[in-house]
Amino acid sequence: MITLKKTNCYIYTRVSTVMQVDGYSLDAQREKLRKYAEFQEMQVVGEYSDEGKSGKNIGGRPQFQQMLEDIKNGKDNVSFVLVFKLSRFGRNAADVLSSLQFMQDYGVNLICVEDSIDSSRDSGKLMISVLSAVAEIERENILVQTMAGRKQKAKEGKWNGGFAPYGYYLEKGELKIAEDEAEVIRVIYDKFCHTTMGAATVAKHLNSHGYVKKQRQNGTLSSFSAHFVKLVLDNPVYCGKISYGRRKTEKINGERNQYHIVWQTDFPIYDGIHEAIISEDEWKLAQEKRKRTGVKNKKVYSMEHQHILSGIVCCPGCGHPMYGSVNRKRKKDGTFYKDYWYYACKHYLDEDGHKCTYSKQIHQEKINAAVEEVIRNIIHDPKFEEATKAKIQERIDTAEIEAEIKEQQKKSRQMVSAKDKLMRQMDSMDYSDPCYDQKYEDLQKRLDALYLSISETDREIDDLQEKMEIIRRNQISQQKVYEFLLLFDIIYDKMTDAEKKEFMNSFIERVELHKEPLQNGQILKSIHFRIPVIVDGNPMEEVDISVPTENAMVETVVLMTRTQVEPTDRMQTSFTLN
């Protein structure tokens, strides 16, 4: 008796979150395909399955790619790949056709059992071209319908899912004010709208005035950042509104089926059903200031000049930063003659809401020279060079943030695992169950919430990694500052004003002044450095300029004497001018 050799074939199955459209689980697909193979006297030599994978492209379907690789290598000498429907093979027309062409290059054809399509026949490839285009359109329609549903929800003023924004908590899907967090939101808007504080200064104010950022799922760091403040200021949810489309998925130019998230500057805003934390007028004030800040005026005079200590020198009246100011002298005919540069307080309100009465302008040359002289005397300390070289070799401890990144990554993996498990549960549901639609809808809601949670966690990971990168860059910057200090006497005088400003901003946190010049004309009170400076072999971050004797002559030499303080206090250096 002669036994005919059966034709070898592969079975490929796939399910996604829209299996309700097709009505068949993975098991149902496999059973159908096996029966077809048996009827056609084919031998199934390999089964490949992608669970919970979208058909928009082959990049996210590892089993599909493995199948193509096995076909390329001639692993099982197959002649056909069986799929339940063409939409299971793919929903992107270009991918379907290119994958089919790839298979046919190795003598393998595609059979779509439910669609009765066989690519080995003359009409088969034409039908695949048409139906794959239809499948792609269907996928796009599903996406459009999903987004339309979310837009309608926003129009109704309802929260669209995901973590509640800081200042709120969720109760049965609705936003409720969390009073322990709402206080921070009110402070942010008050300081930003009614003082001259920027986002970074507001964050510093919160951190220095005892406010602690509540740890929650989408943000577990206890400190406030300028990025957090900007997100709060830009979110209309705090004035009782619901926005839609603040983030948009856009195609990456030059890439096939590759998309990325892009923040939008123009998006619709609807009245929300939740209670507002701040007034709409206050939110509008914040938006107006956000538009104004960060826009630099074009400079046309004294092009080389820079306000070297602008924002570093502090007002002796209110303590806020002083900024560069110019007194521009002109000739009688109105043409430009000469600029005189000052530091002036532009903060008309201090943190307590009282008007700052300090109206004096201080010559920039005077302050710049005094600060420069302090630095020169620091670097002339005999032990400075040795200790500074040691500081260059130090490394900053980033263990806390690294641990937080690992924790967030673990959380993300757990949610992805929960999402995959939920998908498998959806795929295994009995389509004949009379409660199928209701059960499926409930599971779909849970799945949508998981997707949003994963997105929020991934964004938190991105923020933490960005913060880590900033810390590393700051470490490199600090090392450069130390290296520069070793050469300060040689290169500082040769630098441009812009380079001097960059150095001072990286080295000095603030410079404090006396309200009135002392009898010897001294106005410099103290200097706070961003990095420890080395004096007599000891790291110091704060330098106090001590009061000279009444009859002392002010010389250009600053004699340094170190004052011992309690071990728990910051070490200080006293500079006596003789």
Task: Provide a descriptive summary of the structure in words.
- The protein has three domains: 7-152, Rossmann fold; 168-292, Alpha-Beta Complex (Hect, E3 ligase catalytic domain fold), CATH 3.90.1750; 303-315 and 362-578, no CATH class.
- 43% of the residues lie in helices and 19% in strands.
- The protein has 16 helices and 19 strands.
- The strands form six sheets. It has a five-stranded mixed beta sheet, sandwiched between helices. It has a five-stranded mixed beta sheet with strand order 15-16-17-19-18. Strands 12-13-14 form a three-stranded antiparallel beta sheet.
- Strand 18 (558-563) and strand 19 (572-577) form a beta hairpin.
Short description:
This protein is an alpha+beta fold and 578 residues long. It contains 16 helices and 19 strands.
